[in-house]
Amino acid sequence: MADRVSEYLAAFDDIPGTRVYTTKRARQGYWLNQFCMSLMKAENRKRWLADERAYLQDWRMTDEQKDAVLARDYNRLLDLGGNIYFLAKLFSTDGLSFVQAVSTMTGMSEDEYKAMMMAGGRSPQGVRSIKEGN
Amino acid sequence: MADRVSEYLAAFDDIPGTRVYTTKRARQGYWLNQFCMSLMKAENRKRWLADERAYLQDWRMTDEQKDAVLARDYNRLLDLGGNIYFLAKLFSTDGLSFVQAVSTMTGMSEDEYKAMMMAGGRSPQGVRSIKEGN
Amino acid sequence: MARLTAGIASSHVPLLGVGIDQGKTEEDYFKPIYAGYDWTREWITQPDNKPDVVILVYNDHASAFDMNLIPTFAIGCADEFQPADEGWGPRPVPTVKNDADFAWHVAQSLILDEFDMTIINDMDVDHGLTVPLSLMFGQPAEWPAKIVPLAVNVVTYPVPSGNRCWMLGEAIARAVESYPEDLNVQVWGTGGMSHQIQGPRAGLINQEWDQRFLDDLTKDPQRLRKLPHIEYLRETGSEGIEMVMWLIMRGALGDNVRELHRHYHVPASNTAVGHVVLENC
Amino acid sequence: MARLTAGIASSHVPLLGVGIDQGKTEEDYFKPIYAGYDWTREWITQPDNKPDVVILVYNDHASAFDMNLIPTFAIGCADEFQPADEGWGPRPVPTVKNDADFAWHVAQSLILDEFDMTIINDMDVDHGLTVPLSLMFGQPAEWPAKIVPLAVNVVTYPVPSGNRCWMLGEAIARAVESYPEDLNVQVWGTGGMSHQIQGPRAGLINQEWDQRFLDDLTKDPQRLRKLPHIEYLRETGSEGIEMVMWLIMRGALGDNVRELHRHYHVPASNTAVGHVVLENC
Ligand SMILES: [Fe+3]
Ligand SMILES: [Fe+3]
After folding, report:
1. How far away is chain D from the Cα of B44, in angstroms, using its nearest Cα?
2. Is the pTM of this model over 0.95?
3. What is the mean pLDDT of residues D127-144?
C-alpha cells in the first residue's frame, strides 16, 4: 500500500515561504511550544519578563530554540518546531499585535507590511507552488 | 425523526440490578466522581483518612452524596451518579479489593459472594430483562 | 422538536474582539469591517431568527488545548465556559452559558452516528468562539443564546477532511431534529477566510478564491466538500484551512440554501473577513 | 514495510497484576489463570512471533482521564508512559516505551481515514494496559516491545459501536501496511469477558455467551461486529462491554484468521478471563 501519509505531507513542502505545522514539527517543537503556553499565566509572564534567560533554564528546549526565543526570530522558531498560535503567547507578552509580529517574518518593515495588507494583501500569484512556479 | 438517543438509553433501564453509566449519571455524579479522583494522590489520601468530613467540605457534592460516601453505601453512590471506576479510588483507599467492595452491593456476605464466583459466577438466567423476566 | 433554522459563517479575527472591547468600532480602519455585521445584528434580534441555542464550531488557538491534547472534534458539555486568557488577559465579555441538556444530547447522538467525539467538561474558550459572539450579538450583559462549543483541530496536521466536516454537519442536523424540546438552533462555522500569519509568505489574501467559496456555499457546496487541504493552503494561506469548519455548518443545512446576507472585507489584521447568513430553502 | 502479523485478546483484570506483582502466581487460586498464558509467553519469544511494536487497545479506568475529558478514541504519541497510581501506588513494572515515529504515523493515517482521533502526549497508563503486558511478557526489566497505547471510552455511554470499533481496526491495518519500516506489529484487544462489578446483579458470568464470542472471532466475526451494546450489557454484565475493544483487534486482521491458542477461566476477581491468539490465514 502506498504511504498516503507521506504523500499528503510531501505536498506541504512545495508551498513557498510556508511551514505547515505537521506532526514532525509538533514533535520537534514540543517543549518550545509548551514553554510558550506557560506565558498564558500572569505570574509566569512576570517571572519571564524579569529574567528571560533564567526562565528558560526550566524548559527542556535546545540551545538553538532558546537563542531563537531570546532573539524573537520567528521564522527560525517556525523552523525549530514552533507553532504560530503558541508563539503568539510570546509576542503578546512583548505587547506586539499579530500584524506587528507577523510582519517580522516577511522581510518587510511593519509599515510596508501594513500597506500591503491595506492594498488587498499579498497576491497568491507566483507563490502557490515551488515546483510549478505559479 | 425518532429520538434514537432516548431509545438507546431506555433499554438500559430494563436490566435488573444494574446502573449503566449514562451521561445523565455522569452529570449527576460529576463532583462525586471528581472527589474520588482526588484520592489518586497519596497526600490527598492522607488528608482524607485523617478527617473525612473535613475533606468533603471542599467538594461541591450534595449532602446525600456526602452521607453515602461516609457510609460507603456503594449502591446508593451508583444511584447518585457515582461510577464504579471512580468509586474504586475510595474503596482502594480503605484497603478493600474489588471483590470485597463489589460484594457489598449484592446483598450477600463477602464469603457468599466469593463462593458464588468460585462456582462460576451469577447466572444470567432470569436477570437479563425486567420486562421479559428472563 | 428542535429546529435547525439557519447557518452563519464568520471569520473570528482576534483584532475584531480588541476593536469592540476597546470601543474602536467607529474608527476608519474598523468601520467597514463591523458595518458588514449590522444586517445580521438586526436580523438576529427578530423573533423568528433569534436562536435559543447556537452550536458554535470554532478552533482553539493553543488556549484550552496544548500539545498534550489534540482532539479532532471536541464538544463542550459543561454548564459554562470562561473567556480564556490568551496572553493579554481574558476578554471582558460575558461568561458563555451552555444548554447542557442539549449539548449532551448532541454529543450522544454524534457518537451513536459513529463520530469519535471527545467530550470536554472544563475548558476556557478563546477568541475563536467569543469574537463571533461579539460580532453577531454586540456587547450585551449576557449572551442572548446558549452556546454549545464545538472545537475542531485545524492547527496540527492532518486536520479533519472537508468531507468528514461535512458529514459531521449532517450528523449534527440529525441530532438537532431528534431533540424533543422546541428550540430554535443555529449552527455557526467560524474562522477563515484567506490568511497566513506565519513565514515569508504571510499576508497572503486570495479574494477571487474566497468569493468563489462564498458563492459555492449556495451554488455548488459539493465542490467545496471535496477540496483537499493542500488547495486551502496554497490558495488561501496556511490559516485559510480554518474554512473546513464552515463545511460543518454547511453540511448541517439541507441541499438547497438561500444566502440572506454576505459581507467580505480586506483586511482585518492579516486576514480577509468573510461572513454569510444562510437559511434552508 | 510494516507487517500486521497477529492479534491477541485478553482480559485485563487488575487482580492479575496484583498476583504477579506479589509473587502469588503459584497459589491455587491463581495457578490455572496464569497457566493459560504459558503457551503465549513461550510463543511470543519465538523470532517470528516477537512483535517490534504492539498497538495495545485498552480503556482507561478513571486514571488518566476524569470527567473533564472523555475521548472516544485516544492514541498516545509520547515517547513513554508511566504506570498510573490507581489509589494503591503505581504497579512495579517497567516504563512503557512507545515507538513514537510509528505511533504518529498511525495517528495521521487514521485521521486521513476519517477517524476523529484524539492525540495524547502526556498520560499515565493503568492496569488496562499494563496487566496484559505482564500476562504476555512476564516480569522483564524492560518490556520487550514498543507499545502504542490506544485508549477507548467504554465507561461513559454511548461508547463506540462494535461496527465503529471494527472499522477502526481496518483503518489500523491500512496504517500498518503503509508504514515504510520493516516492523512486526501486533494488535492487542483487551478487557472483558463477562463481568459486572456494580449493583445487585454484580458477579454475573455468562460462559456460554463468552465461548460463542470466542468461537465467532474466527467462525463468524461479522455477527460480532453487529452486536448492539445492550446485548453485551444484558448477557455479559455491565463491564462486559469492554469486549467491543476486541473488535478493533479483530477488524485489524483479515477476513480469515486461525485461532492459535485459547484460554478461558472463571473467575479472576469478579471476572471471566478470556484470552486468544489469532493469526491471519
Ligand atoms: Fe482562527
Ligand atoms: Fe477494564
Report:
1. 10
2. yes
3. 98
